[in-house]
Amino acid sequence: MSGAILLAGTASDVGKSVLTAGVCRYLKRQGVSVAPFKAQNMALNAAVTIDGGEIGRAQAAQAAACGIPPETAMNPILIKPTGGHRSQVIVMGRPAFDAGARDYHRRRTALLPAVLDALNGLKGRFDAVVCEGAGSAAEINLRPHDLANMGLARAANMPVVLIADIDRGGALASLYGTLALLEPDDQALVAGFVINRFRGDPAVLEPGLEQLRQLTGRPCLGVLPHLNGLDFDAEDSLALDRPLPSIAPLGSDSLEVAVVRLPRISNFTDVDALAAEPGVEVRFTTSTADVRRADLVILPGTKNTVGDLAWLRETGLAEAIADRAAAGGPILGVCGGYQMLGRTIIDDIESREGTATGLGLLPVVTVFHEDKTLKIHSGSAPGLGDMPVGGYSIRHGRPAADGGKAWLRDADGTDEGCAVGAVWGTSWHSVLEHDEARRAFLSIVADAAGLDWKPGDEPFAAVREQRLDRLGDLIADHLDVNALETLLADGPPTDLPVAPPGGAPAPRAWTGENP
């Protein structure tokens, strides 16, 4: 096997990221050397790679499904919205320019060589590359400069599998309509369909799939059932509309964690490890009542620290956070959230707002710099029993503490976290994924609340591996893996019917029997 395939969708959030990870894990278990790829990603959840760059968090998780470390080639273009209809554009792991939507669309064609170089580099080193599309494959207003969907498939001559989420309704129409809107040369690359998140009896769906095959000449390669708890590192704030699953407590009290849902929230997967602990309920919220009531409040990362700080004040959440701190309620700020908890933020880079007054709960001054800190850390947590811990940084802001307790320390001796009373802050993402540190911190939270909470004993890394294996099982059990492997080996079929845009054959009346 040697090739690449594109898993495209009829819309955003139809399951492309999850299916890409599942196919990657399935192929890895078959002994195939495989890598993920997403040409262009708009996401505020990011990860730092082994080569010192920044990519979408979903691609880092997909790399884990492949059993390989993440690298910048897996997501050559990352777009991070900053507010005001502008975004920071990351090219091959590094900030390249800021742009509005129109400006970026004019510049996209010039980015195609970097995208193809990254893809071809992966194809040269791996047996298979599983590519994830972005948004809808039929965004025809963007097609002339498309880098992530059919433009990529055409440039690389890749077969395409089109995915629809039946849980939304209208899946068959979405598949048919998406194909009909494509140019004939794009249609020729679409080799089949996948139905995702199906509930009910597949026999009831089968007549519709057969009619779709007759109308389009393309088979359905799989109907994937709706599975609860099929968790995956999200890249899109749409995921915040679904609550994090909680695990029943093991004969102990439960802890309630409220994560403030900032308008430009980023790297919210930092809290996934909390939800994996028995008896910890995590919710994203904009409620002042939740902030006052919860056992722990987390101010997460943001792509616009000063803008979201102003929003906290406008909504009354800043006052609720201050009241909570005065009452000794635990608060944790991560990256941008840490900066907000400080005294002063000087930002002529991200928001260009100059000097802003922070919440004043930590003795920290943050100055934003043009060059971005992208670093994987290892060190210790002197504030949690001096246990080993690590994380990663993605930030323009550089916080400096003048006082407080240094509770995280880099291996080079730099203090990377500050605490005063029950208010904690750090620039590091993924600290809570370290089992000892997470459980020690939550035990402090439980003591502050007077709760008898007992931690679990399963490593979070094992939980993640189990999730990826479930995705691999889903593909093995419900997808036509022989057809998938044939597409990877042989490329797009050469005999697929095509029609001019909008010229797909009109539906015929169904007779009530399967042909």
UniProtKB/TrEMBL annotation:
InterPro entries: Class_I_gatase-like (IPR029062), CobQ/CobB/MinD/ParA_Nub-bd_dom (IPR002586), CobQ_GATase1 (IPR033949), CobQ_N (IPR047045), CobQ_synth (IPR004459), GATase_3 (IPR011698), P-loop_NTPase (IPR027417). Residues 256-436 form the CobB/CobQ-like glutamine amidotransferase domain. Pfam families: CbiA, GATase_3. Keywords: Cobalamin biosynthesis, Glutamine amidotransferase. Residues 494-504 have a biased composition (Pro residues). The active site is at C335, H429. PANTHER family: COBYRIC ACID SYNTHASE, DETHIOBIOTIN SYNTHETASE. This is Cobyric acid synthase. It comes from Glycomyces luteolus. The lineage of its organism: Bacteria, Bacillati, Actinomycetota, Actinomycetes, Glycomycetales. The gene is cobQ.
